[in-house]
Design goal:
With 167 residues, the protein is mostly helical. It has two domains: 1-30 and 73-123, no CATH class; 31-71. The chain has helices at 9-15, 19-30, 81-93, 100-107, 111-125, 158-161; strands at 47-49, 54-56, 65-66. It starts with 8 loop residues before the first helix and ends in a 6-residue tail after the last helix. 13% of the residues are buried.
Amino acid sequence: MNNDRPATLLEAIRHFATPEVCQDFMVRMRWPDGVVTCPTCGRTDVSYLANQRRWQCKNKHSKRQFSVKVGTIFEDSPISLDKWVAAMWMLASDKNGVSSYELGRALGVTQGSAWFMLQRIRLAMQDDDNGMLNGTVEVDETFIGGKARFMHRAPRSPRRQRTWASR
């Protein structure tokens, strides 16, 4: 096992079992240079409140106390970071995907919470170009949709009745 990158799900669950380890990992991911900055004003000389696991900005403004979750997909979520890390591990390492039912059973959360987590993780994994393909794209031959004769008469039109080969 690498020092921060467990190789299996079991190692990941054991490694990220404590909140301190999860927070240290997230701090290193969010602020790789090691300087924690205030998400509101950007000030770098913040103090750490160990009893709350939060930082406090020296400037006087609203939201001067912040956690590692602020400004991430984990924000406004009561789910602990150890479950978030395990969920990300499961989604990223499973080649066929993970259902919310499976994730809920594995993490001990409800199916609704698991669905919420999966939606947030998938949103974070999206590309910035809105899913548009570029470059050379190879597509197999396929027909998407049903036959025009099974459609309702209203949307059926000569344009719809053409075959894909004639386009």
